[in-house]
Automatic annotation (TrEMBL), chains A, B:
GO molecular function: transmembrane transporter activity
Protein name: Putative membrane protein
Predominant place of localization: membrane
Segments for region (Disordered): 650-670
Membrane topology, record value: Multi-pass membrane protein
Residues spanning the membrane: 68-85, 106-129, 149-167, 179-199, 264-285, 330-355, 376-398, 404-426, 447-465, 471-489
Keyword Transmembrane annotated: yes
Source species of the chain: Phycicoccus elongatus Lp2
InterPro entries tied to this protein: AA/rel_permease1 (IPR002293), APC_K+_Transporter (IPR053153)
Keyword Transmembrane helix: yes
Location(s), subcellular: Membrane
Amino acid sequence: MSTSGRVVKRILIGRAMRSDRLSETLLPKKLALPVFASDALSSVAYAPDEILLTLGMAGGALAVTQSWKIGLAVAFVMVIVVMSYRQNVHAYPSGGGDYEVASVNLGPKAGLTVASALLVDYVLTVAVSVSSGVQNAATALPFLRGHEAITAVVIVALLTAMNLRGVRESGSAFAVPTYLFMGAVIGMAGVGFFRSAMGNLPLAESANLTLAPESGYETLGGFAMAFLLLRAFSSGCAALTGVEAISNGVPAFQKPKSRNAATTLLLMGTIAVTMLLSMIVLARLTHVHFAEDPATQLLRDGAPVGDSYIQHTVMGQVAQAVFDGFTPGVVLVSVVTGLILFLAANTAFNGFPVLGSILAKDGYLPRQLHTRGNRLAFSNGIIILAAAAAGLIVLYNAEVTKLIQLYIVGVFVSFTLSQLGMIRHWNRLLAVEKDPAARGRMGRSRIINGIGAAMSGTVLLVVLATKFIHGAGYAIAAMAVLFVLMLGIRRHYDRVRDELAVHEGDTKAQLLPSRVHAIVLVSKIHKPTLRALAYARATRPQVLEALTVNVEPEETKALQAEWDRRDIPIPLKALDSPYREITRPVVDYVKSIRSGNPRDLVVVYIPQYVLGHWWEQVLHNQSALRLRARLLFTPGVMVSSVPWQLEGSDQARERLDENRPMAGDVRRGS
Amino acid sequence: MSTSGRVVKRILIGRAMRSDRLSETLLPKKLALPVFASDALSSVAYAPDEILLTLGMAGGALAVTQSWKIGLAVAFVMVIVVMSYRQNVHAYPSGGGDYEVASVNLGPKAGLTVASALLVDYVLTVAVSVSSGVQNAATALPFLRGHEAITAVVIVALLTAMNLRGVRESGSAFAVPTYLFMGAVIGMAGVGFFRSAMGNLPLAESANLTLAPESGYETLGGFAMAFLLLRAFSSGCAALTGVEAISNGVPAFQKPKSRNAATTLLLMGTIAVTMLLSMIVLARLTHVHFAEDPATQLLRDGAPVGDSYIQHTVMGQVAQAVFDGFTPGVVLVSVVTGLILFLAANTAFNGFPVLGSILAKDGYLPRQLHTRGNRLAFSNGIIILAAAAAGLIVLYNAEVTKLIQLYIVGVFVSFTLSQLGMIRHWNRLLAVEKDPAARGRMGRSRIINGIGAAMSGTVLLVVLATKFIHGAGYAIAAMAVLFVLMLGIRRHYDRVRDELAVHEGDTKAQLLPSRVHAIVLVSKIHKPTLRALAYARATRPQVLEALTVNVEPEETKALQAEWDRRDIPIPLKALDSPYREITRPVVDYVKSIRSGNPRDLVVVYIPQYVLGHWWEQVLHNQSALRLRARLLFTPGVMVSSVPWQLEGSDQARERLDENRPMAGDVRRGS
């Protein structure tokens, strides 16, 4: 690579890092919280909006009277799920995530279902978080409006580059924005409640508008009304995504790992619930009106506000009101909200390749995704995730409200199967445990996981019922496709393993060839050829000959003349090729040797030169590569590549040796 | 491949064909004419339109008074160029195209310039011909209107599939549509002139409209007027593309090759000129009004006809008039016009890969494009051509008028350099020729080529002057990029050749290694491993050991246990890998062997299994491939792949063996 090329690469992908710098200290709770919580906490940036706009479809009154109830329901689910996962953390201190819990206790297909669900949800985490982040940013940066999708795609690309670069995550990189966000939101809530108590809380910018129902929602019957409430609840449950992260990351905690992880989980749940409820209450206190379709639903003096009206996020409107237009406060809330959302998206960039590597280890994904110490595996995962998320963003034009319809279903599939698995786990342990105290603990845990399973299952059904036609169906379809694909890959691996297995008495593979017939392929006399001849001679085969294909008679004649002139002590045989092919005459010749002496081993030596750049490589050795590929299909043949390293190849070697930290290192405690 | 997969592939790409069916008889003149003329003749379908609409920019009067003069000027150039190329054909009976003539006589850079120009023009031939064909088809098939670009791309895709399939061209496949087209156009001209003489030639559908000048062209000064005439002339010169085809194809002619080729060239020129002039005259006789922007320029009773007016091609309007609305006649003209245009596009699919192969032979393009008998080479050429043409079609929305601004400049670069080369050619011969009769012939040829060079050069300047800002500039830029790229590739090849050359006294490459140290890589004990061990033992190296990388300690322990249980008579060494890498420990170990005994040869045996599908292949051997790639950069190492053929690999072998006729076979006389 040229110097300028290396500089560009260094800027984009980063300086190579020695692998012994990879090791990392374990996380204390105060760092573990921000490392694992950004996904769960960030949803407070969009969950209230989704609850309000869904309720608002039936007009302003419903949002006022019901939003806090929905918030409480979500908080209730959150408490149950957190309690349940505290059991997981204690039972699987190895960091067995939902995939492991479901696989071990419910069987591989349940595990694979969880895996499919989580893979889909990782993609949606990126799409939703980045889209919401851009929407928030557009509140402060008006020039982004109308370009949300492209901005979101650019941010996904930046996150991708950052993760490909092997960014060295550190607890503090997470801590600063996460604590700032918690501080900003809880501080804002404190100021808001105080001002409200004092009676001087200003109203939101949309307070003086009225919210008209969407057409078709003007008068809702009891059933339709219940359905709408459930839909709002489903959207609010987005606050629960990310709760499972800690259960995957127990090994990254300081000792006592399980206890610290359980404590952190409780802390996270408490903070998330507090923030969500605060936002909902603040939105009510400041009279925020938030609509799915603001141009037609929001009325000023009875007339729709029209397309020129810009509906800021709930977070933005509340900040504007609480801080009474005090710009630094509003900007701080807006900036940290954007940061935490991108951090949340980044957690998916960590989780996706790690899950992929676990699945690859179990044979459900291509095995090369497993190999640790192989950047390529993680890079592929990162690129697949980014491409899928960018595709969704473009498809849904970065509209959070639309994307959120696909979201959560995966998380709740995973929650439900994990909790069901935990019940089985306790059943198994209870079957053998004699100690009454331990039995008591296990029984209590089983009850908690049972409640968790029932609750998660119910929410899953609610999500499916209310969102299936709005998008959750696509998420289910994507999971099904992944499930079938991964099952097919596993079956393929199993089939190959069976075919390769050595059975007793099956000696075909161990048969020692009687003689070695070596063939050196020669196209012209240059250094690689001479080296190949020398190497072939060094192995002292019974038969050794050089072989060339007569494509251009004059060239062959010149080659033969030079061969004689140089007194090369190996016979040169020229194969005729009426159709100017190279591969076929060689393969036919090799076959003819084998058919004459079927127990002979034919070793074909192919001189090959190695260059510095992949694009240089493209210009060379193509006939050799094709011939090599073809000979691999011919039984009884071994193909030896004799490399000649050209100048510049050492740079390519250096590139191959590069080693950098990988996404997810911190949270795996490696 | 599954049975259904094979059926689908057979339908799309065609049945495999034995290579001995490739041979083809040489072409008599009556078949050579249609084989080589479709490109040149087809331009009569769009050249008159472009002349008329360019003149029409200054209003209807100019088109009426000047179009026949432009036609005559084009015809004059055609005569000169045809006369000149008759000299080429006699001087280079080997089928030396413009590239060879320029390279031999003016040097490699001139040749490369011609090559760049021709490559660009091949792309434009496809784009222009297909777009024009679709425009013609839209006359008859109204549902195509508004979907021209996508239809054109689909047709390019069909042509691509046809050529990838290795369609067996035959003279008659060209003959029928070409002769039909000639018959239809000349027959139509005959009927038209006869009816005109009889005084009962109907008028065209646009005869009762008036043609208003475009804004800015209402009153043109003398200079602007001359410029507009030259621009119309430039567009008309599209009729000359394809004239050079015969000079490339002399070897495909029956004997006496040169004479037959020269006669065919003359015939083609005569027919092309006749058809072009006939169309221009017929357009005038039937009062065709043809505008660049019909909606605003064409006036009915003084008012613009508007967007609803559909402007049919000149060919379509003339046919409608001459045949008096007799539908079969109109449809015949429209269908054969479409056919000849697609045939013209197809000639580029033949020419592009052939030129690519010649350039590859000379080291200007990747060498693998050269190898005859290698479908891949031609397939790559076909795909590159199709992609570039489709890109242009989409970019220019299949509008012939826009595309034609880029066209021709390449052809005239090629004409000019070729004719300049011919002058040099005669100069060289005249310097040694003594026979006065021969000298006289050569002198006459030189004069003709001199006139040809002057004429082509002048037209080139006119084309550049009138079209540079309208698009020809892009064509020039594309040529420049290709030129630099090809020069770079050539330099790279030269550098590598010098580096690989064996100099006297340079014995490093011939050094016989003192000992062979064989290493068999083992990941688990299965058939490929056992075979690799057997093969390695058969070569009787001085040192032989099996090597595994300890990534998972339990797995390594199990492997060692099975190794002992099976009593394998080769020591198994386990390398530690703290970072769970595979490549690095192996490479380091190999290096340590080499540094201890620098004259040793290390042979690394990699067991590898071969599967039937590329996607199966992706699931396997990736660590082995990466390791192999890395070891090739390590000096003193040879990498031997020991293949184990799995079930299904025979199907993949069959696919590799497929052999079909290739694009351009007929016109290369092979």
